[in-house]
């Protein structure tokens, strides 16, 4: 899904993208993926009644599962200072894109693609003083999401019209960590960040915690027992 721009002159609260458009006189320059665009989404579910013990007290077992796999929302590389001299309270300026942010080794020594260094900041450069950067809005992709839920149930037919079922359910069965997008910024007008800052000043010094992921989405493994009476 493609959005025309981040906004007009109205501030938005989105952790993954700037609060306003970079250049109000070049709205097309902010054309890019929508901040809520999840490009790929796959969900599969299965319900299977175990074949043994049918027609006896040993039967009535049922297993079910749900697998969810989807891509994450995009996010925007930004500058944490006013390089274009807009003298605005909200900074929505972006750096120049000069390389591939998904390859190589980060300045910290970590390999690109992990929570400590999701993208390579060396792929960006500070624009000339007074200029806007050519990096697009929402050009970076966040880490994908994967979760598998499983349930096992055993039903007991008490009478013709009553039944009691006991079961166990496991959410995020494999305890797979799912990470949010990097965000080291803090908007002065909102509670959330607004993109991930690459540079903190015109000298090209990297912003603190650039490319680093601090939060997760979803939950860790959760197991619960349940009972249901049907009549």
Short account of what is shown:
The chain is mainly β.
Q: If you had to describe this structure to a student in words, what would you say it looks like?
A:
- The chain has a five-stranded antiparallel β-sheet with strand order 3-4-10-11-13, with no helix packed on it. The protein has a two-stranded antiparallel sheet with strand order 1-2. The chain has a two-stranded antiparallel sheet with strand order 5-9.
- Helix content is 0%, strand content 30%.
- The two termini are 47 Å apart.
State the helicity in percent bands: under 10%
Structural class call reads mainly beta
Query: Treating each run of at least 4 consecutive H or I residues as one helix, how many helices?
Result: 0
Overall strand count: 13
Strand order of the largest sheet: 3-4-10-11-13
List keywords for this structure.
elongated, two-stranded antiparallel sheet, five-stranded antiparallel beta sheet, single chain, 231 residues, mainly beta
């Amino acid at each position: 899904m493609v959005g025309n721009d981040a906004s007009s002159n109205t501030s938005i609260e989105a952790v993954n993208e700037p609060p306003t458009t970079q250049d109000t006189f070049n709205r097309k320059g902010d054309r890019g993926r929508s901040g809520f665009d999840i490009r790929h989404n796959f969900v599969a579910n299965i319900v299977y009644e175990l074949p043994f013990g049918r027609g006896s007290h040993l039967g009535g077992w049922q297993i079910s599962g749900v697998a969810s796999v989807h891509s994450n929302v995009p996010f925007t590389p930004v500058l944490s200072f006013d390089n274009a001299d807009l003298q605005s309270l909200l900074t929505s300026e972006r750096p120049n894109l000069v390389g591939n942010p998904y390859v190589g080794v980060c300045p910290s020594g970590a390999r690109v693609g992990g929570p400590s260094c999701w993208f390579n900041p060396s792929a960006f450069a500070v624009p000339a003083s007074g200029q806007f950067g050519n990096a697009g809005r929402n050009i970076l992709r966040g880490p994908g999401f994967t979760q598998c839920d499983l349930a096992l149930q055993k039903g007991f037919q008490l009478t013709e019209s009553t039944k009691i079922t006991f079961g166990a359910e496991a959410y995020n069965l494999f305890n797979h960590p799912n990470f949010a997008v990097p965000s080291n910024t803090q908007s002065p007008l909102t509670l959330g960040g607004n993109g991930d800052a690459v540079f903190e000043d015109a000298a090209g010094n990297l912003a603190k915690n650039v490319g680093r992921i601090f939060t997760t989405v979803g939950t860790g493994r959760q197991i619960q027992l349940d009972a249901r009476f049907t009549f």
